[in-house]
Automatic annotation (TrEMBL):
The lineage of its organism: Bacteria, Pseudomonadati, Pseudomonadota, Gammaproteobacteria, Aeromonadales. It comes from Pseudaeromonas paramecii. Its main location: membrane. It is a lipid-anchor. The keyword Acetylation does not apply. It is found in: Cell membrane. This is BMP family ABC transporter substrate-binding protein. Belongs to the BMP lipoprotein family. InterPro entries: BMP_lipoprotein, Peripla_BP_I, PnrA-like. Residues 1-21 form the signal peptide.
Length: 353
């Protein structure tokens, strides 16, 4: 397990100052919900502020409101000569595709998405690896053997979480069932509709699901509320929300977005920025699962030991977690059996045959 911690300072040399565009780098946040606000504050503190303190270079920060404003703001930044322009979130991909094509000399970094253009650096997180671990946890704590995944939208980036979760659950217990639901097909509503999230979660709970995992940003808040109301367990994504519903939230997966932003900015300053796709996961501490004071006591010691071993197996390459985005389908690891249920003594092991 890797706890989500502030980034360690990076050593920057004044001799590495780049030939910035006259106006320097810029950052385009995603907005619209409570989760996004939390993430933006974390990025500002752990990436932007730290970068400016170390380099003396200021970063232009904007938070567009809606699709039209995203297009206007991003186009203005590129027109004004900002570069690199770091864009947060897969929801901004359509806008970025248009603007990056219009301004081929500008450098853009897309965090948590992929865009194949010669002036775009795409940073993608192997969140299926972290989702695998919490899927195994969900299967071990479930009493009904019925688990649920709620995604904000039917997108490959969201399917990565759902597929990873299902793989981990079936690895732990081959007989477990995982129901997947996607809230909407409208991009701007998919991740900012708690009411629809709650409605979707209640449907799954009525079917007997007793552990819910949501990858839906603000929509997920409704999922967690529904879980708390029904006294079932929930697992978050992006941030840990245990302080909202103590006793309900088992854990959460995280993506180390601040680290990705800081890395892109420092690479550009050192003249090392490159276009192309970067895949970052457990091994690089860009994804992980939460076990800290926010969910203290929620993960049993035996489960903790199993998860840390599974994580090491993934990092070492002994356990391969399939990435849905590579094939458009979910494949499952071949295993001899599942993880044994934890005994009264707290011991657990891998079941054979």
């Amino acid at each position: 397990m890797r706890l989500y911690r502030p980034l360690l300072p990076l050593l920057l040399s004044a001799s590495l100052l780049p030939a910035w565009a006259a106006t320097g780098p810029a950052l385009v946040y995603t907005g619209g919900d409570f989760i996004a606000e939390q993430q933006n504050a974390q990025i500002h503190k752990q990436a932007v502020t730290l970068f400016t303190q170390m380099s003396g270079v200021s970063v232009k920060e904007i938070t567009p409101v809606g699709a039209a404003d995203r297009l206007t703001q991003l186009r203005q930044l590129a027109s004004d000569g900002y570069s690199p322009i770091v864009v947060i979130g897969n929801t901004q991909l359509p806008t970025l595709q248009q603007v990056a094509s219009e301004f081929p000399q500008a450098k853009f970094t897309l965090i948590d998405g992929q865009l194949a253009l010669p002036n775009v650096q795409s940073v993608q997180f192997n969140k299926q690896e972290a989702a695998f671990l919490v899927g195994a946890l969900a299967a071990m704590v479930s009493e009904t053997g019925l688990l649920g995944f709620v995604g904000g939208m039917d997108l490959p980036a969201i399917h990565k979480s759902g597929c990873g979760f299902a793989q981990g659950a079936r690895y732990a217990n081959p007989s477990v069932q995982v129901s997947e639901q996607y809230v909407t097909s409208t991009l701007d509503l998919a991740f900012n509709d708690p009411k629809k999230g709650a409605f979707t979660a209640k449907q799954l709970i009525d079917e007997g699901v007793d552990v819910l995992f949501a990858d839906a940003h603000g929509t997920g808040l409704g999922v967690y509320q529904a879980a708390a109301d029904a006294s079932v367990r929930a697992i978050g994504a992006t941030f840990q929300q245990a302080d909202l519903h103590p006793g309900t939230m088992l854990t959460a997966i995280y993506q180390n977005v601040p680290k990705a932003v800081l890395t892109s900015l420092t690479q550009a300053q050192a003249g090392q920025w490159q276009a192309g796709n970067r895949q970052l996961g457990l091994a690089e501490d860009y994804v992980g699962w939460v076990d800290d004071q926010s969910n203290a006591g929620q993960i049993r010691p035996a489960h903790y030991r199993i998860l840390t071993q599974l994580q090491q197996d993934i990092v070492d390459g002994k356990l391969q977690v399939h990435d849905f985005s590579l094939t458009g389908s979910c494949l499952f690891p071949q295993v001899a059996g599942g993880l044994c249920q934890v005994s009264e003594s707290g011991e657990a092991g891998h079941c054979q045959g």
